[in-house]
Amino acid sequence: MTAYSVSDAARDLRPVLDKAPAGAVNGEWFFVIKQAGVSSQSGGYMHADGSHIAAGELAFQKIQKVVEKLEASRIQPFNKVIIRWRRPKIPLMRGRVTVDTIFDEAIVPRGPHDPVYEAAAVTRRAFWKMYGDVSGDFAAEQRDANIHNQTKWFGPHRRVLSIQGSTKLTLATDGLSTPWAGIAEPENGVGCELFMESDVADITRHPIDNWAPLLIGVGDLVADGFQIAADVEKYGAILFCTLTNDYKPMTRIILSRDSRRIEGLPFGSVPLIRVTPIAEAEIEHQDQSDEWASNAARHALAERQIKT
């Protein structure tokens, strides 16, 4: 393939961008090349005051094709393309178009074997060892990650730990706070971890084999949701989801605040969120019309003497 340079791109775009909508004095378009299945594009024409103009869709489509040609040519490595246009000051003259390709190391996605993943797992285990004996095996684990090392929790870890204390058995998700695979943003995944506590005497009535997969499923819903951890923090407790008949007499799941945080993760700390299965009788006479039925959720937990 013949090399396609930024000069070629500017030449091809000039007659297209010069057909700018009325009132446009300049334009900027930003593209992040697809990496690990993720790409982005933004920008458009602007007025003199910097406000954007809604028109210009045809120009955007042409720019996309030019960016694709630059990407296919790859004269030198880049992951960003910035295109700028300025209206000519003299009528009938051509506008000024510049095309810049940039390699930004800060947005390079993590590879499937990046050490940041294991660092997050080691930090979580160290945290839970303060509260009991952490089993060497996972109480539940789902390993079905894609080619970018992403499970449904957007990272390589989708599993549940078992922590045996003197009087309590704790099940805790191990992976919601692992930084997302294939994405460079400095975020600890979903930004929380979930846990369930049971009295040791209750384990025979509610076997761990039942609750650990449930915790994986609740983790899936949290990962799919939008800012669930922020809503739990805001309301103290939320009525989150229903349970299948397999868990009767328990019918609902409450997510609630916990005072503890896991510190020292790759991008700061994350809160713990308590998962509490409840029976329908615990909320049936409560008003559930408010956001997330939080009043009913807090009432049920107060009856159990669980602080929120």
Essential attributes:
single chain; 308 residues; alpha+beta; 8-stranded mixed beta sheet; 4-stranded antiparallel beta sheet; 6 helices; 12 strands
Distance separating the two termini: 63 Å
Radius of gyration: 26 Å
This entry's quaternary arrangement is single chain
What value does the average pLDDT take? 91
Fraction of residues in H or I helices: 25-40%
Number of strands: 12
Which structural class do you get from the secondary structure elements? alpha+beta
Structure characterization notes:
The protein has helices at residues 6-17, 57-73, 115-128, 208-224, 228-235, 294-303, and strands at 26-35, 38-46, 80-86, 96-102, 133-134, 140-141, 159-164, 168-174, 193-199, 237-242, 250-265, 268-279. It is of the alpha+beta class and 308 residues long. The strands form 2 sheets. Strands 5, 6, 7, 8, 9, 10, 11 and 12 form an 8-stranded mixed beta sheet that branches. It has a 4-stranded antiparallel beta sheet with strand order 2-1-3-4, covered by helices on one side. The model has no long low-confidence stretch (mean pLDDT 91).
Write the layout of secondary structure elements.
Layout: H1 6-17, E1 26-35, E2 38-46, H2 57-73, E3 80-86, E4 96-102, H3 115-128, E5 133-134, E6 140-141, E7 159-164, E8 168-174, E9 193-199, H4 208-224, H5 228-235, E10 237-242, E11 250-265, E12 268-279, H6 294-303
Parallel strand pairs: 9-12
Antiparallel strand pairs: 1-2, 1-3, 3-4, 5-7, 6-7, 7-8, 8-9, 10-11, 11-12
Helix pairs in contact: 1-2
